[in-house]
Amino acid sequence: MKFYPLTFEPILKERIWGGTKLKTYLNKPIASDSTGESWELSTVPNDVSVVKNGVFKSKNVNELIQLYPNEFLGSETITRFGTEFPLLFKFLDAKQDLSIQLHPNDELAKKRHNSFGKTEMWYVMQVDEGAKIIVGFEKDSNPEEYQKELDRKNLVSILKQVEVKVGDVFFLETGTIHAIGAGIVIAEIQQTSDITYRVYDFDREDVNGVKRELHTELALEAINYKTTKSQIEYDTKINTSNNIVDCAYFKTNIIPLVEVYNWEKTKEAFTVLMCTKGAFEIEYNDSITTYKMGDTVLLPAILDKIKLKGNATLLEISI
Q1: 82, 122, 267, 270 — which has fewest CB within 10 A?
Q2: E strands along 128-264, which residues?
């Protein structure tokens, strides 16, 4: 079997806070004006990605892993995570503020939901002037202060708000309270999990006048009440794989591609490329495939020596 770079049908999610930038900015085939998320590569139950190119077209990720576990995942991935695909990749468009929320760690998520926890990172791709995110507490807090301000609907007053620009990166460990603000498009890399504890939603109602479910009791034990240093500084040397995040669940590098980059990857793990700017080609063996901003590409573990050509900004993610 000849393996090759894989792309997938986007799994599009309507959200109360979503908009149209996934179409106008990233060319996704959205069906509504309130589309908040494009799940680019997922094995979350009931949302398993399907291949859209090549001989594996129409097969889903889990089927490919079952057929070719070592070729797709690689030995290191299997040793660390078994044959479950460990990561979830998304693009998000926040037309409105997202809810204030957090995610449980592995231990709590396993006990309560039989799931992975949700460590994640954001890369800011587009931002309207003055747009902000919430990330952690402004000062060290405690359950009593948190509950008091939550009850007063004044929680934002004790949280850290950061005005963002294109290229900003935030690494969110489990327990970090956070919210993406209106006017931001991000690329998100996270553990394979859809467990979110929503603690405040600005009393927002959907089209039927119904408020979204909150998880205030579940959140109390999961919150990290200490301040966090979530914003990440990193290098941007051209035609180099510059490290941004290296954690227990994933490693993310950034490649500012200019013209040609001869790139070698290990055969022990898969790699995913997310194009956040520009366009590029992948040359492997005798084939050339072309990609643009908003494309997400899975390079199976068995692929190694690859030539990248073009002018683009690429997030390179592995385990």
Answers
A1: 82
A2: 132-137, 159-163, 169-172, 178-180, 184-191, 197-200, 231-232, 242-246, 251-264
